[in-house]
C-alpha cells in the first residue's frame, strides 16, 4: 500500500509540471489503462506489481481531472477590463494593502458569467479625517448604508460573511515568470481563484447583508475577531503579528523584517502552523481528558479512558486546524492524528510509516496542488526523518544525545530540500531551533 501511495504521488507531481494540460480524452484513456491494470493485479496471481503503475496513472488522472475542472472556470477574454456587477459574500480574511484592502469574494450572482471565486482589491482615493489608514484593527466603526450605494472615496469596513453588490473590473490571473521566483498564478490556481480585479466607485456598491450564516463564514468571522482583538490590544507590541500567525495562521501579519530574521536563523517553521503546534495542543487535550476521565469511575465504565482521550485529542486538533486556516502542514498532522486516534479507538496496532502514507494520500485526494507548496515537502520530509530517528533503528541513546541527534538529523535531512526550494540554508538553525522550539511551545 505504501509503495502504491508513493506512485500515486509521483503521478500527481508529473501532472503538475506538464507544460500543457492533457485533454479529457487522454485522461480517460489513462484512467481506462489504470482500471485494466487493477483488474489484472486483482485477478491474476503474481501480478500484484501492476498495482504500482496503476496507482501512478490514477494519480496523474486524478490531478488532471481536478485541473480540467478548475481551468474550465477561466474568465472569458472578452470580459477582461470590462465593468461587471457581481453579488457575493466575502469568504476570506480582508488584508490591508497599500491604500486599500484585498479580500476573497465568492460570487453568487453576476450580470456576466464570471468565475465563482475572486480576489478583489478596494482602493481608497484620498485620506479621510475619520479613517486615515486601513488595518486589521479597523472594524465596523463607520455606519454602513444597508440599502444605499457606496460610492465614496474611503474604503468601508469589510468583514468576513458580508454580502455585497459590487461593480468590479476583472482580469485573468497573471504572475511573473522569473526563474525560481514565486509563481503567483499557480498559487491562485491552487486556491481556486480564476480571476482577480478591483472595485470601481459606483452607486451599485451596496452592502446587502451584514452576515450570511454558513460554516465557512462563521469560522472566518471567528478568525477575524481574534485578529482584530490582537491588533487592538497589542497595537504597539512587535509580537502581535507573530501571535496572529500562531493562533489563526495569518502569516501576512508578520513584518518583513521579522520574516528576514526568522529566515536567517532557520525558525520560519515555528511561525507557520505545522505539526509541532497541532500535535502539542492535541497532546495537551489528550492528557487533560485522560486525567479527568480516569477520576470518573462511572464514565470510565461506559467508555475506556484511552478512547475518550483519543477523541478529545482529535477534536482539539480539528478545531485548531480549522481556526488556523487548514494549511497543508496542519492537514497532514490532522490526518495522521485521525489515523492514530482511530487505531487507539479500535485498539489496533499500526506502523508510523502507514500512518504517514495514509495522511499523504488524503492530502493529495483533497488538494492535488499541495505538491506545489514548499511546506508540503518540508512537512512530510521532516516528519519522516523524525519517525526514522525515533524508531530506534540508529540505536538507543541517552535522552540528551537522542535530542541532539534528532536536531541534527532534521537539519541535515532537510538541507537538500531547502537548497532546492529556497537556494539558501541557515548555518545557525540547529542552535536557534534548540532554543526556539521549547520557547515557542
Kindly describe this structure.
The chain is of the alpha+beta class. It has helices at 2-16, 24-43, 51-71, 184-190, 215-233, 240-248, 256-265, 275-293, 297-302, 305-323, 328-346, 352-366, 374-390, 399-422, 429-440, and strands at 83-90, 95-97, 100-110, 117-123, 163-171, 195-199, 206-209. It has a 5-stranded mixed β-barrel. Strand 3 (100-110) and strand 4 (117-123) form a beta hairpin.
Task: Kindly list the characteristics that best describe this protein.
globular; alpha+beta; 7 strands; five-stranded mixed beta barrel; 441 residues; 15 helices
Would you spell out the secondary-structure blueprint of this structure?
Elements: H1 2-16, H2 24-43, H3 51-71, E1 83-90, E2 95-97, E3 100-110, E4 117-123, E5 163-171, H4 184-190, E6 195-199, E7 206-209, H5 215-233, H6 240-248, H7 256-265, H8 275-293, H9 297-302, H10 305-323, H11 328-346, H12 352-366, H13 374-390, H14 399-422, H15 429-440
Helix tally equals 15
Uncertain stretches: 127-148
The helix-and-strand class reads alpha+beta
Q: Roughly how many Å apart are the termini?
A: 35 Å
Order of helices and strands: HHHEEEEEHEEHHHHHHHHHHH
Largest sheet: 5 strands, mixed, barrel
Approximate helicity band: 40-55%
User: Which whole number gives the mean pLDDT?
Assistant: 83
Secondary structure: number of strands: 7
Main sheet: strand order:
1-3-4-6-5
**What value does the Rg take, in angstroms?**
25 Å
Amino acid at each position: 500500500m505504501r509503495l502504491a501511495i508513493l506512485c500515486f504521488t509521483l503521478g500527481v507531481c508529473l501532472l503538475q509540471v506538464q507544460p500543457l494540460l492533457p485533454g479529457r480524452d487522454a485522461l480517460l484513456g489513462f484512467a481506462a489503462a489504470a482500471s485494466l491494470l487493477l483488474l489484472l493485479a486483482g485477478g491474476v496471481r503474481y501480478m500484484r506489481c501492476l498495482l504500482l503503475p496503476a496507482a501512478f496513472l490514477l494519480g496523474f488522472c486524478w490531478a488532471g481531472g481536478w485541473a480540467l475542472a478548475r481551468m474550465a472556470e477561466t474568465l472569458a477574454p472578452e470580459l477582461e477590463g470590462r465593468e461587471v456587477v457581481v453579488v457575493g459574500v466575502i469568504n476570506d480574511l480582508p488584508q490591508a494593502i497599500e491604500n486599500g484592502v484585498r479580500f476573497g469574494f465568492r460570487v453568487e450572482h453576476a450580470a456576466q458569467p464570471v468565475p465563482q471565486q475572486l480576489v478583489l482589491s478596494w482602493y481608497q482615493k484620498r485620506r479621510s479625517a475619520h479613517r486615515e489608514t486601513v488595518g486589521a484593527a479597523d472594524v465596523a466603526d463607520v455606519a454602513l448604508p444597508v440599502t444605499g450605494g457606496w460610492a465614496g472615496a474611503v474604503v468601508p469596513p469589510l468583514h468576513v460573511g458580508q454580502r455585497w453588490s459590487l461593480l468590479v473590473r476583472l482580469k485573468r490571473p497573471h504572475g511573473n515568470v522569473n526563474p525560481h521566483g514565486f509563481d503567483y498564478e499557480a498559487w491562485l490556481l491552487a486556491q481556486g481563484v480564476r480571476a482577480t480585479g478591483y472595485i470601481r466607485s459606483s452607486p451599485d456598491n451596496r452592502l446587502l447583508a451584514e452576515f450570511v450564516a454558513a460554516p465557512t463564514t462563521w469560522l472566518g468571522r471567528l478568525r477575524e475577531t481574534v485578529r482584530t482583538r490582537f491588533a487592538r490590544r497589542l497595537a504597539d507590541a512587535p509580537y502581535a503579528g507573530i501571535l496572529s500567525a500562531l493562533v489563526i495562521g495569518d502569516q501576512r501579519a508578520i513584518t518583513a523584517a521579522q520574516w528576514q530574521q526568522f529566515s536567517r536563523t532557520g525558525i520560519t517553521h515555528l511561525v507557520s502552523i505545522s505539526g509541532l503546534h497541532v500535535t502539542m495542543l492535541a497532546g495537551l487535550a489528550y492528557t487533560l481528558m485522560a486525567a479527568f476521565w480516569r477520576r470518573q469511575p462511572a464514565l470510565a465504565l461506559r467508555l475506556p479512558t484511552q478512547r475518550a482521550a483519543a477523541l478529545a485529542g482529535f477534536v482539539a486538533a480539528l478545531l485548531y486546524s480549522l481556526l488556523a486556516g487548514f494549511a497543508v502542514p496542519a492537514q497532514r498532522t490532522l490526518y495522521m492524528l485521525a489515523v492514530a486516534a482511530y487505531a487507539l479507538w479500535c485498539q489496533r496496532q499500526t506502523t508510523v510509516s502507514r500512518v504517514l502514507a495514509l495522511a499523504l494520500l488524503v492530502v493529495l485526494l483533497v488538494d492535488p496542488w499541495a505538491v506545489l507548496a514548499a511546506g508540503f515537502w518540508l512537512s512530510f520530509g521532516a516528519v519522516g526523518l523524525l519517525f526514522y530517528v525515533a524508531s530506534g533503528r540508529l540505536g538507543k541513546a541517552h535522552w540528551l544525545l537522542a535530542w541532539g541527534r534528532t536536531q541534527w538529523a532534521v537539519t541535515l535531512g532537510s538541507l537538500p530540500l531547502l537548497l532546492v526550494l529556497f537556494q539558501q540554508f541557515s548555518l545557525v538553525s540547529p542552535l536557534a531551533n534548540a532554543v526556539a522550539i521549547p520557547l515557542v511551545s
